[in-house]
Amino acid sequence: MTTISLGIEGTAHSFGVGIVTSEGKILSNEWDMLKPDKGGIHPREASRHHSEIGPTIISEAVNKAGIGFRDIDIIAFSRGPGLGPSLRTTATIARTLALKLDIPLVDVNHCVAHIEIGCLESKFNDPVTVYVSGGNTQVIAFAGGRFRTFGETLDIAIGNMLDVLGRELGMGFPAGPIIETIAKDGENYHNLPYSVKGMDLSYSGMLTAAKKLHSENVSIPDICFSVQEIAFGMLAEVAERAVAHTKKSEILLTGGVARNNRLTEILTGVSERHEVEFHRVSPSLAGDQGAMIAWNGILQYKAGHQISVENSHVLPKWRTDDQDIIWRQSL
Ligand code: AMP
Ligand code: MG
């Protein structure tokens, strides 16, 4: 029998609601993102955004799916990691729906959900995942019953680095896609800190150095070009080592920064050198959205997991490798 899951994502500045069936069919995937006029995202403003827009996005998702509220079998929500206020608002909405409809509540790890929706789309079984977004930069692979973080940023996420740099350079938010376009006009390569430490990466030094180039009147296209080549080269090194170490045969690229064509090109090169398959998650499923939460909710629920409202407090620092992946066979 088909199970229908409504998943709610709201770990940061995006609020999304997706409705997915146990066959993996995405019936709807609606979302809205808070765009600050200036400066970064304030957690309190993000949570206010979620509480204001939440009911509208939920109704839109249910209507677009062509179902009624009574057709929904489970409510899944992003329990962490993320910004505390955003998570709490999202969890409150999810609990309310589950109680009102009297159906199970399932708590989903945001990072794990990015991997599983990528696996659903690509039909990959066991990839090395490069998850790059506004809040996260991780290279992850499944081992010993958990998704292990093989490498990650030691400071800021790559998307955050691009957005903050873009703000300095006078671009709108999000700056990642603008930097990608402008980088095509870059001609001269300028050295910036290439910072890979073991399997981990650091982007804060690059941000400082790129701002300095700007103050020295280096052209914006040259800055964008150099930042992309070095930032993505670092990721390629870590991904390559993860593939060599784990001997996995698939590379999955996901998260908002996965929309970048130059990054895709570089990781395609890695996959060709190692003769492994490569998949970039499509733009509508790469960023933060509810379908991935709904789908992960189904995987967990089918494996026998749900959570009581009493125990569903949010986990702002929930690590990717801090969850037993009960729906996957231990490899
Ligand atoms: P997410 O956190 O998954 O919602 O992704 C948002 C992040 O993706 C922001 O930091 C954006 O700047 C970044 N992003 C979106 N499109 C691109 C792109 N084409 N190139 C680089 N970064 C991008
Ligand atoms: Mg994300």
Give a count of the beta strands, DSSP E runs of length 2 or more: 12
Low-confidence stretches: none
Chain-averaged pLDDT: 96
**Assembly annotation:** single chain
State the major sheet: 5 strands, mixed
The CATH topology of the largest domain is given as: Nucleotidyltransferase, domain 5
Number of domains: 2
Q: How would the global form be characterised?
A: globular
Number of helices: 10
The first-to-last residue Cα distance is 28 Å
Beta-strand residue fraction:
15-25%
Could you characterize the architecture of this molecule?
The chain is an alpha/beta fold and 331 residues long. It has two domains: 4-110 and 288-328, ATPase, nucleotide binding domain (Nucleotidyltransferase, domain 5, 2-Layer Sandwich), CATH 3.30.420; 115-284, Nucleotidyltransferase, domain 5 (2-Layer Sandwich). Helices cover 43% and strands 20% of the residues. The protein is built from ten helices and twelve strands. The chain has helices at 43-65, 84-101, 110-122, 158-168, 176-183, 204-215, 220-246, 261-274, 283-286, 290-302, and strands at residues 4-9, 14-21, 26-33, 74-80, 105-109, 128-132, 137-143, 146-152, 196-197, 200-201, 250-254, 277-280. The strands form three sheets. It has a five-stranded mixed beta sheet with strand order 3-2-1-4-5, with helices on both faces. Strands 8-7-6-11-12 form a five-stranded mixed beta sheet, sandwiched between helices. A hairpin with a 2-residue loop joins β7 and β8. The radius of gyration is 20 Å and the shape is globular. The mean pLDDT is 96. Adenosine monophosphate binds at residues 14, 133-135, 159, 162-163, 174-177, 180, 255-257, 259-260, 287-288.
